[in-house]
């Protein structure tokens, strides 16, 4: 305080000039610091497609279509991360689907974007297929608006399904969506569900309860404290005819087709919901319900890690041979798809349990610096793993920047090594319904690890902005 009092007593322009100089000099140093270039810590073959950003750690990188070289690839197809833009054209329709598709054009546009021709194979599980499934439910409900049926007849369903795929492809979507998402025209027919008309449905189901529970689905609570899902299951059980069997304690689980019947009846319930709700509201509800299902399992194909087990079984300290074998295995799964942060936790735990069953009891994730992001597709010129958020997300197309989506690149979170009981009892629902506490991030690597020494908060893929986001 004495110093402050002394300063306030100083008079004249000299002191004010000195004070302005000090402030200006401090700002000048800050400018110099921002101009410092990050070191190039990695070189990837993908850098041949476009020069890696030089100042990407400060702001998003914009890649203009004009500066992207038009390379030809011997394989005849572009790699997933190559900047592309949708090639639109007029679709050829069957002419036998009596629907005005313009009434659901916004959902069709969104689905075409989420199932982009190049990206659909790598975002199918998390983005494309949930959105395509939502579109089919909405179409089914829209088709039945002026009739008493909640489903389509087989012949019409086949024609309409073909038209839907054709329209999506004409808007830049992948024409192989049905195979990517394992979806058929029979999904529009109600299959083996015994109730397919609205009159019988509304007599059998407590529709007020269904609308109240599912009109608005809470993104954070539904997956851990479900409100809508049990009501949908209750409705599906009632129209499937299984409810009475359950009440009579009959062994319905001995029936070979009970799963298919229940699944088909859930589709009928979704159709009724889509008929009652605005298209956007129905889409939000269906996507949020899909997110709960998607984030319960690991979608990766994890082959038996025999080579990793052999190299890592008896180690207790960092081992170049063990880490090399582990990195080679993880590199093979990194080419599969983009996954969510919750899926990464499940995949890391599942893979760790496979290693433990083979006799690897040491936490080799820690010894070899394995992060959660290592279980997902690598972007940013192969330098950075991308985990999508656990909440529903979409690909966004912009005429000047191409497609964009958000990666969860908040930090290098260490992959969790499973405890003896974590596989059977693991739950991602903490009491406050958030992700459980995860291992802290690490900044230093161990021998044999393949990571770089820095973090790139912003990366570009497919003429894409990938922005750093929160865990959700």
From TrEMBL:
A Pfam family recorded for this sequence: SPARK
The residues covered by the At1g61900-like C-terminal domain are 296-369
Respond yes or no to whether keyword Hydrolase is given for this record. Answer: no
Q: Where is the SPARK domain?
A: 95-250
From the UniProt annotation, give the residues forming the signal peptide: 1-33
Q: Does the entry feature the keyword Lipid metabolism, yes or no? A: no
Q: List the taxonomic lineage.
A: Eukaryota, Viridiplantae, Streptophyta, Embryophyta, Tracheophyta
What are the alphabetically sorted keywords of the record? Signal
Q: What is this protein called?
A: SPARK domain-containing protein
């Amino acid at each position: 305080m004495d110093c402050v009092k002394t300063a306030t007593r100083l008079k004249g322009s000299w002191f004010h000039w000195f004070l302005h100089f000090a402030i200006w000099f401090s700002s000048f140093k800050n400018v110099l610091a921002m101009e410092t270039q990050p070191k190039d810590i990695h070189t990837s073959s993908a850098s041949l497609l476009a020069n890696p950003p030089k100042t990407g750690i400060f702001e998003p990188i914009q890649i203009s279509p004009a500066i992207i070289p038009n390379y030809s690839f011997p394989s005849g197809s572009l790699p997933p991360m190559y900047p592309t833009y949708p090639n639109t054209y007029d679709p050829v329709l069957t002419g036998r689907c009596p629907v005005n598709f313009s009434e659901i054009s916004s959902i069709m546009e969104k689905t075409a974007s989420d199932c982009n021709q190049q990206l659909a194979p790598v975002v199918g599980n998390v983005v494309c297929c949930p959105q395509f499934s939502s579109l089919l439910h909405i179409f089914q409900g829209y088709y039945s608006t002026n009739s008493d049926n909640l489903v389509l007849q087989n012949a019409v369903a086949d024609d309409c399904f073909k038209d839907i795929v054709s329209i999506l492809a004409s808007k830049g979507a992948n024409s192989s969506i049905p195979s990517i998402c394992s979806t058929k025209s029979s999904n529009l027919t109600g299959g083996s569900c015994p109730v397919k008309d609205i009159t019988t449905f509304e007599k059998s189901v407590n529709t007020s309860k269904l609308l109240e529970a599912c009109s608005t689905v809470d993104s954070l609570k539904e997956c851990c404290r479900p409100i809508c899902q049990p009501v949908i299951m209750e409705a599906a059980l009632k129209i499937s005819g299984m409810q009475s069997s359950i009440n009579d304690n009959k062994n319905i689980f001995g029936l070979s087709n009970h799963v298919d019947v229940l699944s088909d009846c859930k589709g009928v319930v979704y159709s009724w919901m889509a008929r009652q709700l605005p298209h956007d509201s129905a889409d939000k509800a269906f996507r949020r319900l899909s997110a709960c299902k998607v984030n319960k399992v690991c979608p990766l194909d994890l082959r038996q890690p025999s080579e990793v087990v052999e190299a890592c079984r008896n180690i207790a300290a960092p081992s170049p041979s063990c880490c090399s074998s582990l990195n080679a295995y993880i590199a093979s799964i990194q080419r599969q798809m983009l996954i969510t942060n919750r899926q990464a936790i499940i995949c890391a735990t599942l893979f760790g349990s496979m290693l433990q069953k083979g006799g690897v009891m040491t936490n080799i994730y820690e010894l070899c610096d394995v992060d959660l992001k290592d279980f997902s597709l690598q972007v940013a010129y192969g330098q950075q793993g991308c985990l999508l958020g656990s909440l529903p997300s979409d690909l966004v197309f912009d005429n000047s920047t191409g497609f964009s989506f958000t990666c969860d690149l908040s930090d290098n979170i260490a992959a969790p090594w499973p405890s003896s009981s974590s596989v059977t009892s693991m739950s991602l629902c903490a009491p406050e319904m958030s992700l459980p506490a995860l291992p802290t991030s690490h900044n230093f690597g161990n021998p044999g690890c393949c990571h770089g020494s820095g973090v790139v908060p912003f990366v570009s893929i497919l003429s894409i902005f990938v922005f750093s986001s929160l865990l959700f």
